[in-house]
Amino acid sequence: MRKRYSRSGQWVLDGVDLTLEPGMTTVIVAGNGIGKSTLLRIVAGASMPTGGRVTDRPRTIGYVPERAPAAIRMTARQYLAHIGRMRGLSSAETGARTNELAERLRLVPGPDVPIAALSKGNGQKVAVIQALLKRPELLVVDEPATGLDAPARAELAALMTEAEQDGAQILLSAHESAVPTGRLYRLTDGKLVPESLRGMRISLRPARPGLRAADLAAEILLEEPGRVVVRTEDADTFLLRALADGWSLVEAVS
Ligand SMILES: Nc1ncnc2c1ncn2[C@@H]1O[C@H](COP(=O)(O)OP(=O)(O)OP(=O)(O)O)[C@@H](O)[C@H]1O
């Protein structure tokens, strides 16, 4: 899948290939402005990719965006009643689940005040409640740590574990400072690199055109055009062998 926001703009996502599994949490880690929200919006169906597509997306999707819409004049309960109707829940089911989740997340002062009058963190709790109102088969949470106090973060973690145990596919984004547990991928240069592949990225010029770095050494974790990723502890051995074979070093970044 690829995504850019204008015809001549940079690719924010440039060849992302990701499979989510039921009952498993997948975490995308990257710094600010790299494209985490872009990827999560596309997976949740809130935005279209420029190229490629999302296949077999489950029917019931819970999506918690990074910033909850704040300017809603309805009360949280009215808004959640509306979401419950759209998801095919009865008013009794919606009411019971609203009360349960509002209590667990400690929504203050409660679901009966206008969303616009809630604090930022409590507005975020309403965004979490709407995503979990009907048990999601796909749960997408953009930076679960943002804006919530410690007890609410812990409760959200518990709710996500419950969703995982119910067999949901879960996709989260995070910064390095607060990485939840799960299968980790780093988003870098528009691509996903499994976290187990973290190490030294080494750009090389081959000794002769057409040579592949993978033929040089067994230590390579990932080969991309013009560069490889090797474990940091293997970097010296790999580089010495490459230089001895006549390759040139262009750049090495850990
Ligand atoms: N609607 C949009 N129109 C144009 N550019 C956009 C739009 N949304 C995001 N971008 C750009 O795409 C890039 C990735 O943004 P995105 O919000 O996906 O990053 P992020 O990794 O979630 O960042 P953060 O951690 O700061 O939330 C940024 O350069 C951003 O400016």
From TrEMBL:
Highest rank taxon of the organism: Bacteria
Keyword set, alphabetical order: ATP-binding, Nucleotide-binding, Transport
Keyword DNA damage appears in the UniProt entry: no
Gene3D superfamilies referenced in this protein's UniProt entry, alphabetically: P-loop containing nucleotide triphosphate hydrolases
GO molecular function list: ATP binding; ATP hydrolysis activity
Pfam families the record matches: ABC_tran
Residue span(s) of domain ABC transporter: 1-214
PANTHER family linked to this entry: ABC TRANSPORTER ATP-BINDING PROTEIN ALBC-RELATED
Protein name: ABC transporter domain-containing protein
Gene source species: Kibdelosporangium phytohabitans
